[in-house]
Amino acid sequence: MAGLNKDTPTPESLTVHGQSRVLEVGFSDGKTFRIPFELMRVYSPSAEVQGHGPGQEVLQTGKREVTVVEIEPVGNYAVKPTFSDGHDSGLFTWEYLYFLGAQQTELWADYEQRLLAAGVGRDDPMPEKLGHSCGH
Q1: Three-state SS for 15?
Q2: Are 103 and 117 contacting, i.e. CB atoms less than 8 angstroms apart?
Q3: What is the pLDDT of residues 97-125, one digit of tens each?
């Protein structure tokens, strides 16, 4: 099983660029994406970021300088990065990495719009967590 969807291109190369803070992923369809760690972190597929349902997303701030300190494979379908802020609960499937890479421009615009709507800045610290029920 190469991915969650049989039509999803699979990674042929995966390179963590620590200094420029990007994950470079080369896919089987010939496309290569340079996905900023910050984008990965603010769009992490984890429940901590996405919530447990629509409307429960947690807007992430203060992640511009985040790095990936470790990345480990999960089966043949995903990777699990550990970020420098301690976040490590997101499983990035090949399909999701392809989505992040292909939709970067739209995702950045959406993120900036959500920051504006919330009245917070990209570099503002995350507010203290108040009793989140899933333990993260």
Answers
A1: strand
A2: no
A3: 999 999 999 999 999 999 999 999 999 99
Q: Which residue has the tokens 């610290």?
A: 125
What are φ and ψ of residue 96, in 5° steps?
A: -70, -40
Residue 106, both tokens: 């739209």
Task: List the alpha helices (DSSP H) in the chain.
Answer: 37-42, 47-50, 94-102, 104-118
Structure tokens given for 3:
């991915």
Q: How many CB atoms lie within 10 A of CB 46?
A: 18
Helices (H), strands (E): how many in the chain?
4, 6
pLDDT in tens, 27-77: 999 999 999 999 999 999 999 999 888 888 899 999 999 999 999 999 999
User: Which residue ranges form the domains of the chain, and what is each CATH number?
Assistant: 11-118 (3.30.2020.30)
State both tokens at 39.
Answer: 């984008």
How far from the centroid of its chain's Cα atoms is residue 23's Cα?
Answer: 10
CA angle centred on 61, ends 57 and 65, rounded to 5°: 130
